[in-house]
User: Fold this.
Amino acid sequence: MVASLEQVFRDQWGYVLAALIGFLGDFDLAEEAAQEAFAIAAERWPRDGAPANPRAWLVTTARNRAINRIRRDRTLAAKTRLLEASKRAREQVDATTFPDERLELIFTCCHPALATDAQVALTLRTLGGLTTGEIARAFLVPEPTMAQRLVRAKRKIKAAGIPFRVPPDPLLPDRLAAVLTVIYLIFNEGYGGRGELAAEAIRLGRALTELLRDEPEVHGLVALMLLLDARREARFRDGDLVLLADQDRSLFDSKQIAEGRVVLDRALALHGRGPYVVQAAIASLHADEPHDWPQIAALYGELHRLTGSPVVELNRAVAIAGTEGPEAGLDIVDHLDLDDYRYLHSTRGELLRRLGRTDEARDAYRRAVALVHDDAERRLLERRLADLERPPAPD
Assistant:
C-alpha cells in the first residue's frame, strides 16, 4: 500500500493541486490542503482500502480541509468568495470526470509578471510535484535560493491578482516559451528515472498541440520527448545507466519513434526551425544506426546559433569527435566555460581516454564524479574510472 500511495501522489498531485487552485485562488492554501489530504490518505487507505476514485477523494478531502481552515480564520467575511467558489466546484469535484485545469495552472505560473526562472520553478513545484531540492538541482542553484524564489513567485501571483486561466489567443505566443521550458524540464526530470513525470510531460505536450495546432515548436517539443522516451528501456540495465553507444537497440520503442517522426514532420511542414524542432531532428538521427555524425554536428551547429548555449556546443564537440576524431572534439571542449558542469568533465575524460592520455582522463572523471548527484550516473562514472585505473593486460 505504501508503494501504491507513492504512485498515487506522483500520478495525482498535479491534478489535485490544479483543481484546488482553480477554485480557491490561493497557491499556499491549496498546497497545504493537498498535503493534508495525502497525509489523511496515507493514514486511512491502508486501513479502510483505497477509494474507487482516488483523485476525486483527494480533491474533495483537500477542499473540505481548506474550507475548515477558512472557517477558523478570523477574516472569514473577507474570504466568503472562496467558500462560494468551492461550493460551485462541488459538483465538478464529486463527479467521476471533471475538467483538467492543469493547463490553466501552467499559464498562470508562466505569467509575464513573473521572472522566467520563477515561472519554471513554480510550475515544476505545483504541477510536477517536484521537491524544492529537485528543482534547485535542475537550475544549478542552492536549495535555499530556490525556496525563496518559490515564495516570492507565489506572493507575486497573489499581489498582482494574476488570473487562473489560459490567456486569450493574442497573448499566447508571448507565454509559450516559458510553458515549453516547464514541460521540457519536467520531462528531463522524468527521463532521469521517474517515468511517470516523463509521461506527464508528454501528455501536457499533446494537450498543448490541441491548443496551439499551428505552432511548430509545440510539435517539435512533443516529437523530441517521444523520440527520447522511446529509448527509455535501453537507458538502464539492472539499475545502471547505459550510454547511447552501448544501448540495446532492440529495446527501443519503434512505434514511438515512428510517432515522434510523424510529429516532427508536422513541425517541419509548419516551417519549424526553432530549437525544439532542431533538437527533435537530432534525436531522430540518434535513433538510426550507424550515426550520421556530419549531419548531427551540422544540426548542433544550427542549434548553437539559435541558443548560444555552451552545453549545445559540448554536444557538437561529441559529434565532431565522431566525424573528425577525439582530438578535434577535445579542442572544442577545452575552450568551453563549464567547469561546474559534470558532463563537460565526463566528456573530456572519454575523449582523453580515446587519445591514450590516461592520467588526464582519470582526473577528468574524478571531477565529474565530484559533481554528480544522480546515483546511476555516479556508478557509471565510477565504472569508467575503475576501467582506467586497472593495469593494462599483458601482451
